[in-house]
Design goal:
Helix content: 40-55%
Low-confidence stretches: none
Distance between the termini: 36 Å
Number of strands: 0
Mean pLDDT: 92
Structural class: mainly alpha
Length: about 70
């Protein structure tokens, strides 16, 4: 492992892939539009009927916010 680390090779378990189907699939345009209007994540969650953490995770993984 020390040799692999010194060579810059990846160590450990590979990162997983994104789910193909989620609660917010197909609502990217709505979320992006609401973010552009400066609507809060909690409010977006209430509008879409999901938890704010679900919305935050979706925004982060799909890179919908220009931070």
């Amino acid at each position: 492992m020390a040799r692999m680390k010194s060579e810059g090779l990846p160590i450990g378990r590979p990162a997983g892939s994104l789910s193909k189907q989620t609660k917010l699939t197909g609502k990217e345009d709505t979320i992006r539009e609401l973010l552009d209007k400066k609507v809060g994540v909690s409010t977006i969650g209430r509008i879409l009927g999901v938890n704010r953490l679900t919305v935050e995770s979706y925004i982060r993984t799909r890179k919908l916010r220009e931070d």
